[in-house]
Amino acid sequence: MLLKVYYQEEGVRSPRREKTRSLYIEAESKVDVIEKLEKYTHYNIEYIVVLEGKFLDYEKEYTNFELSEY
């Protein structure tokens, strides 16, 4: 499944909306995504969304859609 992850690059500071970034990743579950990102990054994960159907179509058409690999 494809997921969109909202995160802050610095996990030690309190989150600020202006610094929220996102990435797209393919994984078996949300838990799998969290485990991968905790292993390879220091991101502060805010929210994870499953992308499918019209939501996925929108992301591919109107955003800089690029899958991240970890």
Please tell me about this protein's structure.
The protein is 30% helix and 33% strand. It is α+β, with helices and mostly antiparallel strands and 70 residues long. It has a single domain, classed as Roll (Ubiquitin-like (UB roll)), CATH 3.10.20.730. The protein is globular and about 35 Å long. The model has no long low-confidence stretch (mean pLDDT 90).
Give the helices and strands, then pairings:
Elements: E1 2-8, E2 21-26, H1 30-40, E3 44-51, H2 53-62, E4 67-68
Parallel strand pairs: 2-4
Antiparallel strand pairs: 1-2, 1-3
Summarize the structure in short:
It is built from 2 helices and 4 strands; from the N terminus they run ββαβαβ. The protein has 70 residues and is α+β, with helices and mostly antiparallel strands.
For CATH, the homologous superfamily is named as: RNAP, epsilon subunit-like
How many domain units?
Answer: 1
- The secondary-structure class comes to alpha+beta
Strand content: 25-35%
* CATH architecture classification: Roll
